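Collaborator request, handled under Task 6.
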Amino acid sequence: MGGVSRISFLLVAFAGAVAASTPACKSVDSGTIQLITDEDAGTFTQSPAPTELQILAVESADASTVLATAQLPTTTIDLGQLSESAPVVSLNVTGYDSSKTRRVFGASLPLQYAALAGQTIPIFVQRSGELALLPGPQSDSRTNPLLAVVQGEFLVVAGGSDSSLASTTQLFDFGTFAGFDAPPTLPAVPQSIALAGTVAWLINSTGATYFDFSSSAYGAVPTPSGGSFADVAGGATVIDPNGAQYIVGGTRTTGKATATILKIDPSDTSNANYPYGNPSWLKLSTPRLGAAAAWVDMRGLVVIGGNSSSDGAGVEIVNTDFTSSALPFPADGSFGVSAAPLDTQHVLLAGGVSSSFEDPGARSLDIDCAPSASTTCFTSWGSLPFVLGSSQTFAWNASSGLVVGNEVGLGNTHVFRLAPTSATEIPTRMPHKNATAVWSPVGSVVLFGGANRIESFVP
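C-alpha cells returned to the collaborator:
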C-alpha cells in the first residue's frame, strides 16, 4: 500500500545569473525542483483538485515573495533568474482549487538559490488536512519510538519498546526525502534525548552519553551537581525559541513522580566541562508524573497536571528568568495529557486519561484566568472517542491543532484534527500501534511507530 512517486509530477526550472571574470560576460547556472508525492493519495487528482500552483520564497514569517504562479495541469514552471546572493529561504509549493482554497502543500528545507545550481532539489507535496506516506519503507516497525530532529534536517528514530532494536537507529533526510542505508548504532539506549548540532545527549536512568551522529564518536556526560539524570529520564524534551532544551521529568508516564527539569543550552559553551551546551537543573514546586508541558512565548515553560487534586497547584510556569511560579489552578487528576501553545495566553490540552479513566477531552487553558467556583478557566474543544494513554499535541494557530495518540490497552494510533468546536479523526494511511509524533524539519507533523512507514500531516 502507498507507494511514493519519485518521478516528477512537476519540474520547476531555475536560472541563476552568476557574474563571470569580466563584467561584460555572464554565465548562467540552472537547477531543478522536483515535486514528489504519495502516489496513492491522489495529491493532484483527488476532488476538489488544485487548479493553480504557486511557488513562494519564504525568508521569515513576515517576509515572502511569490516566485511564480501557473495554471494546472502543467509540467514546468520557469522561475526566471534569481540572485544566488539572496538570503536563505524556504520554497513553499501551494496548490489552490478554483475557490482559492489550499488543497496541496509542501516546503523545502532552508536554502540559498546558489544551492540549486546543477542540482535537483526534491520537495514532498501532499494534500492539506490529510496524512500522506513519506518515501520508504523504513528498516523496522518499532513501537513507542523516541523521535528527534538532528541539525534541522534529519529525523532520528531511536529507543522504543523492543530491546533488540532500542540501541539501533533510523535516519530520514528531509533534504533528499530518503532514509540512510546504514544508520548508526547507539552506545546507550536513550529514554530522553536533546541535540546540540550533530551531538545528542542520550539520557537514561543510569546516566547520560554524548553521541555524535556525524562521526559516531561518544563519551560519558558528567552529572551536573544538584540533580540526577534518573530524575528526568523518560521525560519529554521541550525547545524554546532560542534553542535551549528542557527535559521535563514530570511528563514521563512511568517511574516515580519528579519535580526535576534539566535545561541544556547548546549556545552556552562557557562551561569547559560541557562542550555541547551548559546544563542546569530547574525545580518545580510539586513532583509530577504524566504531566503536560509546552513552551509559551513571553511566559516560559508551562507544566500542567500530573499531580493529584490534593497535591500542589495544577499549573506551574518556569518563567523566562527561570524562577518557578505555581498558578492557582486545582489539579484535574488527568494523566498523560499533552500540550501545545495556542498563543501567549492559551494552551491546548488533549489526550491522556481522566481520574475516572475516561477521555478528559480536548480543551484550552487560559493561563491568565482566575479560577473560581463559577469558572474553571478551561474551554472545551470537544471529546475524543478513544482514551489516548500517550499522545503528542500540536497547534498552528489559536484555533487549529492536532493530537496524535494511542489507545489505552490496545495501542492503536489515532490522529484528530482539533478546532474550538470539534475533534475530527484523520485516517492514517496505514495502521500504526504505539506511534510517536514530532514536528518535522519542513513544518509538517510526522508520526512513526508500529508500522514501517513515516506519515506526514499539514493543515
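The cover message to the collaborator said: "The first strand starts at residue 4 and ends at 5. The radius of gyration is 23 Å. Please let us know whether this matches your experimental observations."
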